[in-house]
Amino acid sequence: MQSDVYLFGMVLASTSFLLKGGFLKPDEYSEIKEKYRLPGGETGTCATVLASLGVNVRVDGNHIGYEIEPLLREFYKDKSVQLDSMYFDKNYKGLEDYIIVADDVRSPFGTFQEFYSSGRKQWNMPKEEDIAGCKAAAIDPYFEEASETAARYCVKHNKPYVTIDCRYDSYIHRNAAVSVISGEGIQTHYPGMTREELMPLFLENGNGLTIITHGGKRFYYGRKGQEVKSFEPFKVKVVSTLGAGDTFKAGCAYGLLKGMKDDDLVAFASACSAVAVTRFPIPLYPPTLEDVNKLLHTSA
């Protein structure tokens, strides 16, 4: 059950459409430039990027349906991503999403509300031996008590973990080595509050590094009792922002695995995300360590 990084979260099939000539307009025709059906989800994309960075990954999370299983097995068969902890359900189609991408915006849609409101809880409880056998982890908070259990196993076995978009008063945030909060997370949990208002609350309630991102704009990071710092993202030509946040999380997990200091981890994660937005789709063209280090060196 050994791995470099253990990931617990959402893995699914994503069909993405890159459009010509700008985003959709009501009652107007739009031309598809490129279309792909590939593994996605926050954890699926993170796993793909970490594998591209040379990391051995073990994945667990939601149940995988029969329409998704062949895609995942074929895609990951030659990559350092272990799928054997996941549950493959022969009686379930599986979860998919669809994303329209144009310019620097995207719009995802799917059946996530049904997935969570059905009451079926189609996700695994994490396996303690998987977490005991990793060096670092990344835990998404979307699976209720299962996500918290993964965090508790990490604490029990002294495994540092990254998380995203948790509430500041949650167990998962409090014990994370790195906690990333995006604009989407702010809108979900704290609509109407600013990053400046939220940063002290996250810092006071966290024991690790807190990062509040802001898309392609300057963002904040810091630790409780220390000076809050900011970082200006790398300036690149954006092709698609799809998966940028998932790639940032992968960069954080890599930095945690390698024992990077806070400033270096933030710069590395930001460089991963910057490389990712210059290409489409990320699963076929994920950032490599050479790509990221080249950008870091060029911008130094």
Describe this structure in words.
With 300 residues, the chain is of the alpha/beta class. It has a single domain, classed as Ribokinase (UDP-N-acetylmuramoyl-L-alanine:D-glutamate ligase), CATH 3.40.1190. It is built from 11 helices and 15 strands. The strands form 3 sheets. Strands 6-4-1-10-11-12-13-14-15 form a 9-stranded mixed β-sheet, sandwiched between helices. The chain has a 4-stranded mixed β-sheet with strand order 3-2-8-9. Strands 5-7 form a two-stranded parallel sheet. A hairpin with a 6-residue loop joins strand 13 and strand 14. Helix 1 packs across helix 9 (244-257). The radius of gyration is 18 Å and the shape is globular. The termini are far apart. The mean pLDDT is 96.
Would you kindly provide a brief summary of this structure?
With 300 residues, this protein is α/β, with parallel strands linked by helices. The chain is 35% helix and 23% strand. The protein has a single domain (5-23, 31-289), classed as UDP-N-acetylmuramoyl-L-alanine:D-glutamate ligase, CATH 3.40.1190.20.
